[in-house]
Each structure stands twice: as structure tokens, then as C-alpha cells.
């Protein structure tokens, strides 16, 4: 099957071995992130997604924060492996923090009570779409990335360190950088397990 969009999706892989030598400028990465999030769909065009981009020392500060948070809860004998994993994220060029604006969700619940239970779910879907869009856009520029979830462990520290509004709730952290080692082969389950087609 030949389809430009499908081919773009295929280039988006989880890259764990990242470096800090970006193939494009930080300004270009920032523009890509903004455009990808801006044009990602959301229910009722609610535009609930919020993003913080960290480069250089600010990026490393995030992962040091994660490491020290985990040091307090991971058993000492297991911490070395955890520290190595976190250091591999810190070795990248930057991080993208994805948030959802809960005030927007709450306002929609009040405006449309019939759908009140759905708006938190739709918010999560909007966040996932924005993450996927950014990840795919970065992949087109040969920028590697992986998606992490150390929330809610680091929520309060992140909020204080970068003066994040209280109504922004952290949903994911995407580390990005140069690709030191490509992703390995990916296995797929059989189509008949995942799809049902009726005519």
C-alpha cells in the first residue's frame, strides 16, 4: 500500500538511544511542536492540550528531578538500572511536557451536562492525538523521540519549577534528540485479531 501519510506514521518509532545533536534547529523543533498541536483535533474544538518545551539545562533539570524522585521510592538494589534509564533520557536534546487544561474540561461539562462524563475521556483522547502528531512530525525531520509517563510522581515539582498553572494537568513527557541507534523490528498481531470487516 502506498500512501504518504501511512509512510509518515511508519517512521514514528520509539527511540531510546538518543543524543543531543539535533539535525534541525531548536527554533524549527519548537515551530513543529506548535503547528502539530495547533492542528490536532479535539472534541468541540476545545483545544485542551497545553505544552511546555524544555531544551538544554532545563531538559536535564527535568530528568534529574525524575531521578531524585525515584531514588526515594525505588529499592536501593534496583536503583542503578533505573538511574541508567533516566540518564538515557537526559542524554537527549530536549523534552516536551504535555498537559491538559482541566478548567476547559470543567467548563464544557457545565455547558453540556448531557455529555459531562465524556469530556474527561475526550480530553485524554485529544492529548493522545497531540502527542502522536508531534511525535510523527519530529520523525519526519529525523528527530528521535520516546514517550514517558512519570506523572503524577513529578507533578508538584514540575508545577513549581516551571510556574505551571494549577489547572494544567501533566499527562506525558516526550524526550527527543538525535538518533544514536534506530528502533528494532516491530512485530504485529494478525489482522483478524484486531479487525472485523462487514459488507
Quick summary of this structure?
The protein is α+β, with helices and mostly antiparallel strands and 199 residues long. It contains 8 helices and 5 strands, in the order αβαβααβααβαβα.
Structure description:
The protein is α+β, with helices and mostly antiparallel strands and 199 residues long. The chain has one domain (15-182): 3-Layer(aba) Sandwich (NADH Oxidase), CATH 3.40.109. Helix content is 48%, strand content 17%. It is built from eight helices and five strands; from the N terminus they run H-E-H-E-H-H-E-H-H-E-H-E-H. It has helices at 4-11, 26-38, 56-71, 76-90, 102-111, 118-140, 155-161, 191-194, and strands at residues 18-19, 49-55, 94-101, 144-148, 168-179. Strands 1, 2, 3, 4 and 5 form a five-stranded antiparallel beta sheet that branches. Helix 2 runs antiparallel to helix 6, helix 3 (56-71) runs antiparallel to helix 4 (76-90) and helix 5 packs across helix 6. The protein is globular. The two termini are 21 Å apart. The model has no long low-confidence stretch (mean pLDDT 97). Its main location: cytoplasm. Its EC number is 1.-.-.-.
Which terms would index this structure?
199 residues; alpha+beta; NADH Oxidase; 17% strand; Nitroreductase
Write the layout of secondary structure elements.
Blueprint: H1 4-11, E1 18-19, H2 26-38, E2 49-55, H3 56-71, H4 76-90, E3 94-101, H5 102-111, H6 118-140, E4 144-148, H7 155-161, E5 168-179, H8 191-194
Antiparallel strand pairs: 1-5, 2-3, 3-5, 4-5
Amino acid at each position: 500500500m502506498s500512501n504518504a501519510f501511512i509512510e509518515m506514521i511508519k517512521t514514528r518509532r520509539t527511540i531510546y538511544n538518543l543524543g543531543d545533536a539535533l539535525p534541525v534547529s531548536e527554533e524549527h523543533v519548537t515551530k513543529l511542536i506548535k503547528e502539530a498541536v495547533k492542528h490536532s483535533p479535539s472534541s468541540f474544538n476545545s483545544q485542551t492540550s497545553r505544552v511546555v518545551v524544555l531544551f538544554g539545562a532545563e531538559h536535564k533539570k527535568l530528568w534529574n528531578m525524575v531521578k531524585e524522585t525515584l531514588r526515594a521510592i525505588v529499592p536501593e538494589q534496583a536503583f542503578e538500572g533505573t538511574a541508567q534509564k533516566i540518564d538515557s533520557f537526559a542524554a537527549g536534546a530536549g523534552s516536551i511536557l504535555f498537559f491538559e487544561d482541566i478548567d476547559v474540561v470543567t467548563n464544557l461539562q457545565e455547558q453540556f451536562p448531557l455529555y459531562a462524563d465524556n469530556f474527561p475521556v475526550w480530553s485524554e483522547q485529544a492529548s493522545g492525538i497531540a502527542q502522536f502528531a508531534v511525535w510523527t512530525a519530529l520523525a519526519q525531520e529525523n528527530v528521535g523521540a520516546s514517550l514517558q509517563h512519570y506523572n503524577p510522581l513529578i507533578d508538584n515539582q514540575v508545577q513549581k519549577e516551571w510556574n505551571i498553572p494549577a489547572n494544567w494537568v501533566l499527562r506525558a513527557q516526550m524526550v527527543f534528540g538525535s538518533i544514536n541507534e534506530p528502533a528494532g523490528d516491530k512485530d504485529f498481531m494478525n489482522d483478524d485479531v484486531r479487525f472485523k470487516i462487514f459488507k
